[in-house]
Automatic annotation (TrEMBL):
The chain crosses the membrane at residues 12-38, 44-67, 88-108, 114-133, 140-156, 162-182, 194-216, 222-239, 251-270, 276-293. The keyword DNA-binding does not apply. This is DMT family transporter. Residues 23-155, 166-292 form the EamA domain. It comes from the Bacteria. InterPro entries: EamA_dom, EmrE-like. The keyword tRNA processing does not apply. Keywords: Membrane, Transmembrane, Transmembrane helix. Pfam families: EamA.
């Protein structure tokens, strides 16, 4: 009888664990979808408003979600933080990441810019070796090199590589990668604190950049600008929760669904479809990134490359 009860308990625990993983995967997919929706909304809005204005009002919108969360934690958690220099660096990098993303999608198709950002985990693998002292074997170094080749293919090796939108996308994706690395240095900081400072950074940068570049808006446009912040913040929360329910190594590759949504939304809303060169570059980047995830899990000497609360959107 005791043995039978044991078996039943194990089955129940397995079922609960399986349900948690399923919910975690579902939340990650929903969070990625919302980030892609945020990116498409951002591209639409920067066609009518300056990047600074979008950043400023978007950040105000985020506080509709952050406000109730901030009320549940002591005020000291915002200013008594670990490693202040890394906190400041993360705010600057996250602000650059978001601002440069919007600056790039103002001129380039959504899928093209997303292709640059999909190389973020590949940059993280390389940067973590130098900044965090994480060991990377020759196979992953080869995958990093192949991933860089994919970026060059997507950039189109020509004078187009020197256009400002492409440079915005490239520097923004590097800022995104450095934001991920800095997030790994601040693991003990609460999610709410990280996102709040990140949002305040965008608010200040947006206020500064919108000087002399402020356009009037109607009620519907104001709602859309505020909704942009709500959607991005909600996506952060969904992804954070998913990482607590399912293994990060399982969830990490799901971020590449962002590229699929970017292609679909770009085609549906803007009539853009990536050309063959961008698709080839994207495929090379995704395959290299997936191999890096796989080798990280096999060797178990590098943590999966999906940190909490990091996104360009």
């Amino acid at each position: 009888m005791a043995e039978r009860q044991n078996i039943m308990n194990k089955r129940a625990a397995y079922a609960v664990g399986g349900n948690a993983v399923f919910i975690g995967v579902s939340l990650m997919l929903l969070g990625d979808f919302m980030f892609a929706l945020n990116d498409a909304m951002g591209k639409w809005l920067v066609a009518s408003f300056s990047v600074g204005q979008v950043l400023f009002i978007r950040s105000l919108g985020a506080f509709f979600v952050l406000g109730p969360m901030l009320m549940r934690q002591p005020p000291a958690s915002l200013y008594k933080v670990e490693k202040p220099q890394w906190q400041l660096a993360r705010v600057v990098l996250a602000t650059a990441d978001t601002g440069l993303f919007y600056a790039a999608v103002a001129y380039l198709p959504l899928a093209d810019v997303m292709t640059f950002y999909m190389a973020g985990p590949i940059y993280v693998a390389a940067l973590s070796h130098f900044l965090l002292g994480e060991r990377i074997g020759w196979r992953r170094w080869l995958a990093v090199l192949i991933g860089f080749i994919g970026v060059v293919i997507a950039l189109r090796p020509s004078s187009a590589m020197l256009t400002w939108p492409s440079i915005f996308g490239l520097i923004g994706s590097l800022s995104f990668a450095l934001t991920l690395v800095s997030g790994r240095m601040l693991r003990s900081t609460s999610d709410t604190t990280l996102v709040t400072w990140q949002t305040l950074g965008c608010l200040v940068a947006g206020a500064f950049l919108s000087i002399g570049a402020w356009s009037p808006f109607n009620t519907g446009e104001l709602f859309a600008l505020l909704l942009l912040g709500v959607v991005a913040c909600a996506a952060h929360l969904l992804i954070t929760r998913s990482l607590k329910l399912a293994p990060a190594s399982m969830l990490a590759p799901l971020q590449y669904t962002l590229l699929l949504w970017a292609i679909l939304f770009g085609w549906m809303f803007f009539g853009d479809f990536p050309d063959i060169q961008t698709l080839i570059g994207a495929a090379v980047i995704v395959l290299a990134g997936l191999f890096i995830f796989h080798r990280g899990n096999v060797k178990q000497d590098v943590e999966p490359l999906v940190p909490k609360n990091s996104s360009h959107g």
